[in-house]
Specification:
Elements (H helix, E strand, L loop, with lengths): L1 E5 L7 E4 L10 E10 L1 H8 L1 E5 L2 E4 L9 E2 L3 E9 L11 E4 L9 H4 L23 E4 L5 E3 L5 H4 L5 H12 L6 E5 L3 H14 L2 E5 L3 H10 L3 E3 L6 H8 L5 E6 L4 H9 L1 E9 L13 H5 L2 E4 L5 H12 L7 E6 L3 H9 L6 E5 L1
Helix pairs in contact: 4-5
Length: about 350
């Protein structure tokens, strides 16, 4: 089978021919029909995350191996299955839950594989979907699509479930104000979900006016461009001086994190998602004085994805896939994403 492999940190992916994975027991072989291209793939390809102030954390120090096939947003059809697989047949269309854990720790046993301390995530710690076929170690990580198009389904496995999980952590109510920083694949999903599920007043923030116009179409009540205004002051004005009840930072830079913290009302919640990189410095007394909650969010659980897929099947939320690339054009897809030239999500198709 063909696969686009990361062979050296910071270098373009290489097209290689690999043997078709074999299946046994509870394993499943999925023929990939769509694989989302995520910002996390850029960090993995570069080989590091920016910690700010000149510091980096190397992904190899976090156990990420080379060579590696990237791609964790995978939809496809079952090509082969192990003898003890139940409820799924060859040819069934499925979405892959990629955030696999060890299976034996407390996190995994309580349904939070994404929080496992020894993760085995697809496309991160084991080969992913930038390939014609994907080996999935247990059929429980497959969700039937039942008519949901694979291109729409694939981004749900990361950008969708991450946005959904982050939104749940805000505990936002219908009479509250929610600020969403960053209108990319995750932000666009969060706007749809917030408008439909919570009924909150949604303020979308981005430095790109075209993305802000797009946010309006998705249902954002107000939009703000921090390059043209004082973001914190404007949020305070929109809320009659109170500040936002919650902020989800899908960017994760020093500037967006600082703004998120400073625009919150007392008792407000800041959910940090983005991995752009940087440092957040907060005077410690501000935390008790303001009763602020700062919450990190890493992807979502299998249960979260099941809930989200159900919402997608009912038409409550839809992935915004604006661009499709061939598998062999994966490097161009990553370069286009790096330039910020993709609205919503891009997918690879073998």
């Amino acid at each position: 089978m063909k696969a686009m492999r990361l062979v050296e940190w910071g270098k373009p992916l290489q097209l290689v021919e690999l043997p078709l994975p074999e299946v046994a027991d509870v394993d499943v072989l999925v023929k990939v029909t769509a694989c989302g291209v995520c910002h996390s793939d850029l960090h993995l390809a570069d080989g590091y995350y920016d910690l700010g102030e000149g510091e980096r954390i190397r992904v190899q120090n976090r156990g990420v191996p080379l060579p590696l096939t990237l791609g964790h947003e995978v939809a496809g059809v079952i090509e082969a299955r192990g003898p003890t697989v139940h409820g799924l047949d060859k040819g069934d269309a499925v979405l892959v839950y990629p955030w696999i854990g060890c299976g034996g720790c407390k996190a995994c046993k309580t349904g939070n594989d994404n929080l496992c301390m020894t993760p085995r995530s697809i496309g991160v710690y084991r080969d992913g979907g930038y390939a014609e076929y994907l080996h999935v170690p247990h059929y429980k990580f497959l969700l039937p699509l039942e008519g949901l198009p694979s291109e729409d389904a694939a981004p749900l496995a990361c950008s969708g479930v991450t946005a959904y999980s982050a939104l749940k952590k805000t505990r936002i109510m219908s009479d509250a104000t929610l600020v969403i920083e960053g209108v990319g694949g995750l932000g666009s999903m969060a706007i749809q979900l917030a408008e439909t599920i919570t009924g909150a007043n949604v303020v979308a923030v981005d430095t790109d006016d075209a993305k802000l116009a797009y946010a309006k179409k998705l249902g954002a009540d107000q939009t703000l461009n921090p390059l043209k205004t004082n973001l914190v002051d404007d949020v305070k004005t929109l809320t009659d001086g109170r500040g936002a009840d919650a902020v989800i930072d899908f960017v994760g830079s020093s500037n967006t994190a600082e703004a998120a913290f400073n625009m919150l009302t007392r008792g407000g919640r800041m959910v940090s998602v983005g991995l752009f990189g940087g440092v957040l410095k907060i005077p410690i007394p501000f935390l008790p004085f303001r009763a602020t909650e700062i919450i990190g969010n890493y992807t979502g659980s299998l249960g979260d994805l099941m809930e989200l897929v159900s919402l997608a099947k009912r038409g409550v939320v839809k992935s915004i896939v604006s661009t499709s690339f061939r598998l062999t054009d994966a490097n161009n897809a990553l370069d286009t994403l790096r330039r910020g030239a993709i609205e919503g999500r891009a997918v690879l198709r073998p």
